[in-house]
Shikimate kinase
Amino acid sequence: MIRIFLTGYMGAGKTTLGKAFARELNVPFIDLDWYIEERFHKSIRELFVERGEASFRELERNMLHEVSEFEDVIISTGGGTPCFFDNMDYMNGRGQTVFLDVHPDILFNRLRVATHQRPILQGKTDGELRAFIADALEKRAPFYVQARYRFDAGHLESRRQIAGSVQQLRSLLGV
């Protein structure tokens, strides 16, 4: 039985690597944010605004527990998911956890071109975006490093790099 949780900051490649890895292992891929949006027919942003952060994080935890019952699956968590409640301990107890570690400069480059897709980043200057990423990583690092495995996901810019990363991840996890 395969149950692998991919964690890391936004832009780390959880969806990109997760989809490719799931294809390689011939198992379903679940993006927790997409799962929540589909269940509630609202965007994460709408749910966050309507409910407030505390209520949203509770809903997120409940959905994490739900998808954690699935077998033979790759699950990509939201960037903040590991940082609330006992989510990291819970994931470690339910399957293999992988922190997709990416240098802040690479995250900056990836997120800089995706600001229109991520409302929390809109309107930020380059300096503000760099500071935002550094601050968030500093706060979240104590949670991310609790993952059983740490994986350098800094090389996902081409199909060849993604394929190489999939093989490295497969070797790391022994699947």
In short: The chain has one domain: 3-167. The helical segments are 14-25, 32-40, 44-67, 87-94, 104-112, 126-144, 159-173. The domain at 3-167 is CATH 3.40.50.300 (Rossmann fold). The two ends are 10 Å apart (CA to CA).
